[in-house]
Amino acid sequence: MGQRLCSEDEIPVGEMKVFQVGRREVAVARIASDRFHAFRNRCPHQGAPLGRGYLSGTFMPSDVGVYEWGREREIVRCPWHRYEFDAKTGRSLHDPQGCRVASYRVEVHDGFVELTD
Fold it and tell me: Domains, the chain, ranges and CATH?
């Protein structure tokens, strides 16, 4: 059992909530009715609070002149400079190997979201 953060009903689908966990701030995103992901509430670019950003989708690889939108509610967009991070892994979309946000494991037990890391 991990550290209880909130009831799962406190975070609507498509939204995030920030929690103080010890000396760190953790943002929890609910990307689907039964899928929560947690990550450090600090953008590695210039320190913006990612929990004040929003969940979105992104443009997918496609043919020239074709714009395909996908991954709705799976992308965390930084509120300051619009950097995009995968909510599931913390990796940036522009440099997945070099730029990332620390991510944490969360689980739902008895209707409560718990940080398990």
Answer: 3-115 (2.102.10.10)
